[in-house]
């Protein structure tokens, strides 16, 4: 659906159903240089299983207009502004990569608005190599290729996509190319600058599920496990062969793990 927020037209995937704020709300928050297309194998699944789904393209990403946001704090406040505009009192946040930082910061800044957290292929900090930050401005297509390659596990480099007719690496590059030219650089700088993850994780009181990827070269699993240990009562599951783009590489397993968690 299309939604106006702060003067920008925001695209939000709702899983093919009209959004109903009376049902439990799942907000899917994408990572750096990504969009709602991260979640195509989750949004429809949960929309048809009793949830109202919001998978927004952040400003300047995917099909959303507006200037890319430049800090994790601004992104967290933007998520809550989106909830306000849709009259949603509280939501379950599902974050991937940078979206994990945004979900944690949202829970810290606005705890009463967050019912639970699912944190996928993330960590409390996501430092970014200076060369990649520079490349995201000077040679963005090269940055897309590098990040897409690093971001997928060994199986994804060999086999076809879990979505028929797609290839993981080609699909990933096309997703990144659809964004505003400044989006990836803004995202990487925001991740690199964010230092509040440890305090945010320690402050979480909501039920939390951490889904981690054993072959993750972007947010290595050991850092995800440290995040899970910092969050009181968090459940943690590691997918040994998965890469950073876990929701696409192992969608059925991710959906099953989330379903079990949400049922509790």
Describe the structure.
This protein is of the alpha/beta class and 264 residues long. It contains eleven helices and eight strands. It has helices spanning 40-47, 72-85, 98-109, 130-138, 140-150, 168-177, 183-193, 197-203, 221-230, 246-249, 251-263; strands at 2-5, 8-13, 25-29, 52-56, 91-96, 114-120, 208-213, 235-239. It has an eight-stranded mixed beta sheet with strand order 1-2-4-3-5-6-7-8, sandwiched between helices. Helix 1 (40-47) runs parallel beside helix 11 and helix 4 (130-138) crosses helix 5. The longest helix has 14 residues, at 72-85. The relative contact order is 0.16. The model has no long low-confidence stretch (mean pLDDT 95).
The chain-level structural class is: alpha/beta
Number of strands: 8
> Strand order, biggest sheet?
1-2-4-3-5-6-7-8
What fraction, in percent, of the residue positions are helical?
40-55%
Number of helices: 11
Low-confidence stretches: none
Average pLDDT, to the nearest integer?
A: 95
Distance between the termini: 30 Å
Question: What order do the SSEs take from the amino end to the carboxyl end, as H and E?
Answer: EEEHEHEHEHHHHHEHEHH
Question: From the alpha-carbon coordinates, what is the Rg to the nearest angstrom?
Answer: 17 Å
Shape: globular
Give the key terms.
264 residues, globular, alpha/beta, single chain, 11 helices, 41% helix, eight-stranded mixed sheet
Topology:
Layout: E1 2-5, E2 8-13, E3 25-29, H1 40-47, E4 52-56, H2 72-85, E5 91-96, H3 98-109, E6 114-120, H4 130-138, H5 140-150, H6 168-177, H7 183-193, H8 197-203, E7 208-213, H9 221-230, E8 235-239, H10 246-249, H11 251-263
Parallel strand pairs: 3-4, 3-5, 5-6, 6-7, 7-8
Antiparallel strand pairs: 1-2, 2-4
Helix pairs in contact: 1-11, 2-3, 3-8, 4-5, 4-7, 5-6
């Amino acid at each position: 659906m299309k939604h106006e927020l702060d003067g920008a037209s925001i695209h939000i995937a709702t899983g093919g159903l009209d959004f109903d704020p009376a049902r439990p709300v799942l907000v899917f928050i994408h990572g750096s240089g990504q969009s709602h297309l991260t979640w195509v194998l989750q949004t429809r699944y949960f929309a048809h299983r009793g949830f109202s789904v919001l998978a927004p393209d952040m400003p300047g990403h995917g099909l959303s207009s507006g200037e890319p946001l430049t800090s994790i704090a601004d992104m967290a406040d933007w998520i809550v502004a989106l909830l306000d505009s849709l009259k949603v009192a509280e939501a379950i946040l599902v974050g991937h990569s940078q979206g994990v930082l945004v979900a944690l910061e949202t829970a810290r800044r606005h705890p009463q608005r967050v019912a639970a957290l699912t944190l996928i292929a993330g960590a409390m900090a996501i430092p970014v190599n200076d060369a990649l930050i520079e490349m995201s401005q000077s040679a963005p297509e090269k940055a897309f290729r590098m990040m897409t390659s690093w971001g997928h596990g060994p199986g994804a480099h060999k086999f076809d996509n879990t979505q028929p007719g797609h290839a993981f690496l080609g699909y990933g590059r096309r997703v990144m190319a659809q964004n505003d030219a400044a989006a990836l650089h803004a995202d990487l700088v925001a991740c690199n600058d964010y230092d509040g993850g440890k305090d945010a994780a320690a402050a979480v009181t909501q039920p939390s599920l951490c889904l981690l990827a054993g072959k993750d070269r972007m947010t290595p699993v050991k850092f995800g496990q440290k995040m899970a240990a910092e969050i009181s009562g968090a459940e943690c599951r590691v997918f040994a062969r998965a890469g950073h783009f876990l929701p696409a590489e192992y969608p059925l397993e991710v959906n099953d793990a989330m379903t079990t968690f949400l049922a509790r």
